[in-house]
Design a protein that fits this description.
Layout (H helix, E strand, L loop, with lengths): L34 H28 L5 H13 L4 H8 L3 H13 L3 E6 L2 E9 L1 H21 L5 H16 L13
Helix pairs in contact: 2-4, 3-4
Length: 184
Amino acid sequence: MSSRQSSTPETTPPQPDQSPAAPGPGDVNEPAAHQPRAESIDAIQRELTAFARRSRSQASQIHPGLTLVTYAILDLLRERGGCRGTDLAAHFMLDKSTVSRQVTALERLGLVERSTDPEDQRGQIIRTSTQGSALLQSVSEQRRLAFLSRLADWPDEDLERFASYLTTYNSSYSSPTDAPSGPR
């Protein structure tokens, strides 16, 4: 072998504006210590996706005219005691036109009502109607019973940890800028 040849192939270092590809789960170049973390992240993503699918399916069972988005809007209106459409758009990171369509659908179903904003006569406050509040109360009781049944065999310590983990996870999305970008 000449002095110019090496026993290892030369690699080109990444350019300043390029970074090496991040290893994926099971990548042979991924350090063994990172594989369990990647597998855990994959399991979390898979389980949250399954949870979201069940939630979407249950929204239409609650009321045939509800989608997961309209149900979430209705629930937030109940929680806040009402708010403006722009507040809903900001909270859910949706366009104002999308929220307007969803609120109109809820209004047609008799689940929300609008009133003039006392602080700005040009705006409207959207609130749950009596019918909307009754629907949410009924659903809340049904969901609570389902959770009690599903979690009946869990030890108290596990329930506390699970609640804490969910709270920590959800608080990581405290503002719209914290959420991942992508289609809405």
